[in-house]
Amino acid sequence: MKKFGRNIVQFFPYLVVFYMWFVVSFLGSLGVKNRPGITALGLLTIPAVVCLIIAAIKTYKELPEEGKVPTFVDKQGTQTPQFNRKFGIIVFGVFFLAIGISTYLYYTHPVALQIPNNDSPSIWTNPPVEQTILYERMVPEEREKFLAEGIPNKDNIAAMIIADLITIGVASLCFVHCWKNVGFWMATCFLWGSFICTGLGESGIILMGRFIFGGHVHNMFGDMFYGTFWYPKAALWFIHCPIMICIGWYQVAYCCVWIAGKLFPRMNLYPRAVMGGLMAMNLDLWIDPVATSPETMTWIWIKGDPIELFGIPVWNFWGWFLAITVFAVVWEKLPVFKEKWGLVRGSVYFFLACPLCTIIAVSLMFLYHIVVGGLLAAAGVPHAVRFPPGW
C-alpha cells in the first residue's frame, strides 16, 4: 500500500468513476421511488466497472516499488512556464467570464430567454407539461403534487451551490491527474474543450427547440419533434447549460478516455477512442434515469424520440458516445496541431474544432429522427417504442 499512497494521483480517474457510479448513480437511485427496477439498472454498468477494476490493477502493477511515477516532461517545449502562464490566464479568464455572464443573464432575464417557470408547470407552452417524458413517468399522485408545487428544491440555492462545489472538487482530481501525465496545456484543453462541446452543444439544441422548432415541428407520431429538453435549476451556468453538467461530462469523458488508453495501450487511436466512448455511454445508462427521475428533475425531456430507453431518448445515449469519441480523437491530435501550427495557432484550431464534435453528433441526431422514426411509422407503429414498456 505504500506505493499506492506515494502515487495516489495516478488513481484519481478510478476514484472519480467510482464516485460517479456509486455515489451519483447507486446512492441517487435509492431515493427514487415508484420506479420499478431503477436500482437494478446498475447491473447494466458492470462492463464499465470491470474495465475500471482491470485498469486500476494494471496501474498498480506498473507503479515503481520505490519513489513516485515521474511527472510529465515535455521534450518538445509545451511545458514552458511562460506559455503556460499566459495560456492559463487567457483560457480560464475567458471561460470564467462566460460563466459569469451566463449566470447573470439566467437569473436577471428569464423572460427574455423564455425559460419555463419552475413554479407553474401547468402554464408551460413550449412544451406543454403533457408533452414531457417526465409527466408520463409520474404516477397520478406525483402529477398532482408537481402541478401544484412545481420543480422540487427549485429555490434551494445553497444546495445547488454545494452541488457545484462538490462537482468542481471531484473534477479537480481529473485535472490534476491530466496535468501530471500530459502537461498543463493538454489538461487545460481537455477541460475547457469539454465545456465547449457540452455547453455550446446542449445550449444550441435547447435554444433551437425553444425558439425555432418547439411547438411548430412535430414528428411522425404527432409529438413535438424539437422542444428537446432543458435544465430547470442550477447555481452556475455556461450559456444555457449548468456548469455541473459540463463538468460532469468532462469527468466521465476524461476518465473513460484515460482508462481505455490504459487498457488498450497498443490499440490505434480511433478504436481506442471508440472504447472510451462506449465506456462513458455504459455509465450513462444509470446516471441519466436517476438524474431525470420525478424526485430529482435535474433536466426535463420532451417527447419526440422514436425510441425511449429507461425513460430517456435513445439519441441521448449514442449522442454521448459520438461526442466523446470524436472529442477524444481531436484532443489526442493536439501534439500534431502543435507540431504543424505551433502552440498558439494549434490551441486556437483545437478550440475551433471542438464545436465540430457537437455539430457532427447533432446532425446525426436529426438523421436518426428522420430515418428511424420514418421506418417505425411506415411499419405502423403509432407512438414511440419504449424499453421497458412501463417506463
Write up what this structure looks like.
The protein has helices spanning 2-6, 12-30, 46-62, 81-108, 133-137, 140-149, 157-182, 184-213, 243-263, 269-291, 314-332, 334-378, and strands at residues 229-230, 237-238, 241-242, 300-301, 307-309, 312-313, 385-387. The chain is mostly helical and 391 residues long. It has one domain (12-31, 46-56, 80-387). The strands form 3 sheets. A 3-stranded mixed β-sheet has the order 6-5-7. Strand 5 and strand 6 form a beta hairpin. Helix 7 (157-182) packs parallel to helix 9. The protein is globular, with a radius of gyration of 21 Å. The mean pLDDT is 88.
Kindly report the average pLDDT value: 88
* Overall tally of domains: 1
Q: Main β-sheet, in a few words? A: 3 strands, mixed
Tally of DSSP β-strands: 7
